[in-house]
Amino acid sequence: MQDIIEYDDGNNKEPAGIDALVRAEIDMQISTAHAYPRSMDRVAKRVMSLVTLSKESAESCVYALPRGGKNIMGPSIRLAEMLYSQWGNCRGGTRITEVNRKERYVEAEGVFHDLETNAMTTKRVRKNIVDRNGKLFNDDMINTTSNAVAAIAFRNAILSGIPRMIWGEAYEVALVTMRGDSKTLAQRHDDVMKGFAAFGLNAEQVYKIAGVEGKRDLDIDKIITLGATFTALKNEEITVEELLASADSATTTSGSITGGTKQQPYNGTAPEPEPEEKPKRKRRTKAEMEAARLEEEEAKRVAQERKQQVNTPPHDQDTGEIKEEPAPEVNREQKPGPEMGSNMDVGDNEVPSANYDTVFNQIIQDMMDGAGQDDIRGVWGDIINKMENESPETYNRLMEEFKAAEEG
């Protein structure tokens, strides 16, 4: 790669003018570009050929970087270099613009100049030069980080300067080629582990980078992502230190490798929802409690009197002698049953379905008069049982009233 911007001082801060020789060289290149314009179709085909040249070539075109607990995947510097070589009639370069040890970062600039359109794209990238403990990198690590920043800046400039429609299909083909056949899962695992081992990373660290607990949790997608991460590491788009720091950060945030919280490790199931806090019951005064007790006793007394009234046959109030009344005439065409709406002992009589609404209204009236459910069932129990079979709709309405009374 070639730096296309030059500086005349040692601090690399103030740009100097391009001399006449360089200007003439650029003018000549622009003239040549106009005389021999590129063919978009030929460029796309050549890039596709390079990407699909081999499986290794396809894998080198994709990178993955851990960010915020997730893996960001995209076209790598190798794909950008293929584009740059086949695009033609262009100039580009990258350089380190600043190494700031006080603010602890390095910055690089990438430039891509299309000579046919005379369009120039400039991209700047900055990276921190501190380790996980906040300590400044040594000189070797600063140089390594600087190379990574320069590569990323150059890649960004090229991919911004060349339309995605030219290289998008080749990138998608690279992803498909990387996936390959799931039958090769074991071999892919071993290859990835060997690649990371060359950078001093053991299996446990690789699993942490992938966000899994062990080998059994690695599926084909995670292995592909690991392969793309290895590509980024090999292309110096990320350093081992940054990779481990990002993995540690994701683990600290989630509490464990695969999820959960720091206080409650993930156990493979969805976390149980927090129980809803029940509203506190208002403390009643002694007067309110006494009034409620009296009201309840009165309701029981009324219900008991009504029950006795229903179960007691007609009698003389003074002597207590039971009065004998002639039996009512029964319509043979209709099954015998009590008159609906009266407080009679229903016994085992069968009730016509058409009168269940009347029964329902009478029971509601009894409840409003203060009768409890036990008393109501003692009087109306048989009819309620028949109601369940013969008039389910009325029965369900009655059960809802019972439930509302209990909750109230």
Which descriptors would you attach to this protein?
408 residues, three-stranded antiparallel β-sheet, disordered N terminus, mainly alpha, two-stranded antiparallel sheet, single chain
Provide structural commentary.
With 408 residues, the protein is mainly α. Among the domains are: 20-182, no CATH class; 338-408, no CATH class. 51% of the residues lie in helices and 11% in strands. The chain contains 14 helices and 5 strands. The strands form 2 sheets. The chain has a 3-stranded antiparallel sheet. It is elongated, with a radius of gyration of 43 Å.
Distance between the termini: 82 Å
Strand order of the largest sheet: 3-4-5
How many beta-strand runs?
Answer: 5
Count of DSSP H/I helices? 14
Could you describe the largest sheet, including whether it forms a barrel?
3 strands, antiparallel
Using only C-alpha atoms, the radius of gyration works out to 43 Å
What percentage of residues falls in helices of 4 or more residues?
A: 40-55%
Architecture blueprint of SSEs:
Layout: H1 20-35, H2 40-51, H3 55-59, E1 62-67, E2 70-75, H4 77-87, E3 90-100, E4 105-114, E5 119-128, H5 139-161, H6 164-179, H7 185-197, H8 203-210, H9 220-234, H10 240-254, H11 286-311, H12 356-368, H13 373-390, H14 392-407
Antiparallel strand pairs: 1-2, 3-4, 4-5
Helix pairs in contact: 2-4, 2-6, 4-5, 7-9, 8-10, 11-13, 12-13, 12-14, 13-14
